[in-house]
């Protein structure tokens, strides 16, 4: 019978804390550079980023032992790490990648990131990561071998962050990817995860033999354990979906009056500041693209 680790290994702890510390330092340096240009990232976004890092590290370190005892705890760890923590991190990255601006210009987004975070590839990569790591052979190997488990967690983080980037506008997105498209995108991700969750929720057989051998040690039927894991996946995804729906609805309601006013006056609804970051507050810049009239925009004050 496999013996679950009594605690997270020193290498795992050092790796998780090291990655979190490096990410925090890099983000702090970025926010400092942006603040020097008087385009500070809002504190709430900074708090979301650091909260995402703390949640990711806590889920890796705090739930490691339990994730080797019951599948329900393992899926809880995966949800916290791959969906909730990544969402918080991307909320903080949305303006950090854009240099403190509300909407990142395409020229500031690296080409490789634009391609990866395009809605279609991002959704395909996230869905493939979800299902491939739940194949019995890979899932079982990740439970039994710390190295494979670390690779699984890295993939969860990477695919989760990449999946949320286009939803929250952290990278340049196609013109057709508006609020309605974002809503459909969120629904598609939830349906993709819900299919797998329902397989576990209504399963009458055990998918991963590792947890069968621990039946006597935990006093929990492996079938019930798998059903509970599916319930956690489905419930957590549903709550997340409702929150994102509320955000998209609020966003649409907020931008609708501005858009309507723009159509009535013939002026752009909102032109983000794209002038020199060294320009003083109140300075003007002429913005425009070839074939379109230039628009005069004043440099926003500090903290805008």
Molecular structure report:
- With 304 residues, the protein is an all-alpha fold.
- The protein has one domain (16-258).
- It has twelve helices and two strands.
- Strands 1-2 form a two-stranded antiparallel sheet.
- Strand 1 (284-287) and strand 2 form a beta hairpin.
- It is globular and about 60 Å long.
- The chain starts with 9 loop residues before the first helix and ends in a 6-residue tail after the last strand.
Mean pLDDT: 79
Envelope shape: globular
The percentage helix is 55-70%
- Report the C-alpha radius of gyration, rounded: 22 Å
Précis, in short:
The chain is 66% helix and 3% strand.
Please give the structural blueprint:
Elements: H1 10-36, H2 43-62, H3 64-67, H4 71-96, H5 111-116, H6 119-132, H7 136-144, H8 146-165, H9 179-201, H10 209-212, H11 215-218, H12 222-265, E1 284-287, E2 295-298
Antiparallel strand pairs: 1-2
Which key features would you list for this structure?
two-stranded antiparallel ribbon, single chain, 2 strands, mainly alpha, 304 residues, 12 helices, 3% strand, 66% helix, disordered C terminus
